[in-house]
C-alpha cells in the first residue's frame, strides 16, 4: 500500500522536459502535476464549497450512524457513552419494519424491471422512424417533468372508485370497479403503475440513444443472414444495450427509493395506504410521529446502505470501462 502511494506521488510530481535530441527528461517540478501552481491557485475557489458539502452530506451520514447506535427519543441530547446495535436488532424483529422492507424491495424490483421493458419497447418503436417522432417523444417524456405531488394527485383521481378513468375503462368490458388505493392487495401495484407512467419516458430516451449508437451495418448484416426481426433484436441488438440498461437501472432504482413524496401526497400524512408502507415512510414516521430518533436513524442508515448496494456495482462497471 505504501509502495503504491509513493508511486502515485512520484507520478503526480513528475514533469517531462524535452531534450535537444528529441528525448524527454523526467523532472520533479511544482509547476505541473498534482501540486502544480494551477492546482494551488485554484484551491480558494473549490476547496471551501468542497469542505462544506463534505460536512453537510458525509458528516451528516456519519453523525446519523452514531445516533442510530444510541437510544435517543424525542429531541433529547444523545448519549454517546453507550453505543450498541440495539436499534438494528430491534428493526429485524419488528414486523412493521419487515413489511416495509418487503414492500421496498417489491417496489424497487417491479418498478425498475417493468420500466426498463416498457422503455425499451417504446424506444424500438420510435427507432423505426415513425411519423411525428419528436412530438411523440416529447409527450411521452413530459410526465417525468412533473413532481411526485402532481403525479400522486393525478393518479388519485385516475384510481377513484366512482368516477376515475381506470374504473370507467374497466367498466366498459364489465370489470370493476376496484378500490385501487384502499385495497391493500392492489395499492402497491397501483403505485408501481403510476411510477412507470411517470418514468418510462426516461428509460425510452436512454435506450433510444443506445439504439441510435449501434451502426446500421449490424442491422443490415442480421437481415442478410436471414434473422427475423425478433431474433435480430434479441440476439444482436439488445445485448449491445447493456450499458444503457445499467445506467437506466441505477437511476430508476434511486427514483424508487425516493417514492416517499408520492406516497405522502396520496394521503397527506405519514401513514401511507395500507399495504404500501416502505422504509422511507416508516423512517419519517418514526422520527416525527413516534419520536424514536435513534430507530429512525437506523432505518435511514439501512436505506443508505441499500442505495450503496445499488450504486457501487455501477461505479465499478464505469471504472472498469475506463469511464470513471
UniProtKB/TrEMBL annotation:
Keyword tags: Cell membrane, Membrane, Transmembrane, Transmembrane helix, Transport
Membrane topology: Multi-pass membrane protein
Pfam families per UniProt: BPD_transp_1
Gene3D superfamilies documented for this protein: MetI-like
CDD domains: TM_PBP2
Keyword Membrane included in the entry's annotation: yes
Record-linked PROSITE patterns: ABC_TM1
UniProt GO BP: transmembrane transport
Annotated TM spans: 45-66, 105-126, 138-158, 186-209, 241-260, 294-317
Location in the cell: Cell membrane
Signal sequence residues: none
Stored InterPro entries: ABC_transporter_permease (IPR051393), MetI-like (IPR000515), MetI-like_sf (IPR035906)
GO cellular component, one term: plasma membrane
Domain ABC transmembrane type-1: 101-312
UniProt family annotation: Belongs to the binding-protein-dependent transport system permease family.
Name of the featured protein: Sugar ABC transporter permease
UniProt source species: Halarchaeum grantii
Organism lineage: Archaea, Methanobacteriati, Methanobacteriota, Stenosarchaea group, Halobacteria
Amino acid at each position: 500500500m505504501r509502495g503504491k502511494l509513493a508511486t502515485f506521488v512520484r507520478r503526480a510530481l513528475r514533469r517531462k522536459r524535452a531534450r535537444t535530441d528529441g528525448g524527454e527528461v523526467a523532472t520533479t517540478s511544482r509547476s505541473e502535476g498534482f501540486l502544480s501552481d494551477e492546482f494551488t491557485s485554484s484551491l480558494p475557489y473549490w476547496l471551501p464549497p468542497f469542505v462544506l458539502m463534505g460536512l453537510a452530506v458525509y458528516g451528516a451520514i456519519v453523525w446519523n450512524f452514531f445516533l442510530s447506535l444510541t437510544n435517543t427519543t424525542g429531541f433529547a441530547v444523545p448519549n454517546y457513552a453507550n453505543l450498541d446495535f440495539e436499534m438494528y436488532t430491534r428493526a429485524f424483529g419488528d414486523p412493521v419494519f419487515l413489511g416495509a422492507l418487503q414492500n421496498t424491495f417489491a417496489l424497487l424490483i417491479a418498478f425498475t424491471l417493468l420500466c426498463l421493458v416498457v422503455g425499451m419497447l417504446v424506444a424500438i418503436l420510435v427507432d423505426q422512424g415513425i411519423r411525428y417522432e419528436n412530438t411523440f417523444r416529447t409527450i411521452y417524456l413530459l410526465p417525468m417533468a412533473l413532481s411526485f405531488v402532481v403525479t400522486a394527485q393525478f393518479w388519485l383521481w385516475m384510481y377513484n372508485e366512482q368516477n376515475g378513468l381506470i374504473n370507467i375503462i374497466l367498466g366498459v368490458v364489465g370489470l370493476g370497479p376496484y378500490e385501487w388505493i384502499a385495497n391493500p392487495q392492489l395499492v402497491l401495484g397501483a403505485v408501481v403503475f403510476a411510477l412507470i407512467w411517470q418514468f418510462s419516458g426516461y428509460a425510452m430516451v436512454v435506450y433510444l440513444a443506445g439504439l441510435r449508437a449501434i451502426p446500421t451495418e449490424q442491422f443490415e448484416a442480421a437481415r442478410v443472414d436471414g434473422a427475423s426481426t425478433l431474433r435480430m433484436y434479441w440476439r444482436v441488438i439488445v445485448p449491445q444495450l447493456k450499458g444503457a440498461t445499467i445506467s437506466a437501472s441505477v437511476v430508476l432504482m434511486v427514483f424508487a427509493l425516493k417514492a416517499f413524496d408520492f406516497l405522502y401526497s396520496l394521503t397527506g400524512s405519514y401513514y401511507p395506504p395500507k399495504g404500501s408502507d416502505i422504509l422511507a415512510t416508516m423512517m419519517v414516521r418514526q422520527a416525527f410521529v413516534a419520536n424514536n430518533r435513534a430507530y429512525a436513524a437506523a432505518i435511514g442508515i439501512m436505506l443508505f446502505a441499500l442505495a450503496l448496494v445499488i450504486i457501487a456495482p455501477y461505479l465499478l462497471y464505469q471504472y472498469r470501462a475506463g469511464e470513471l
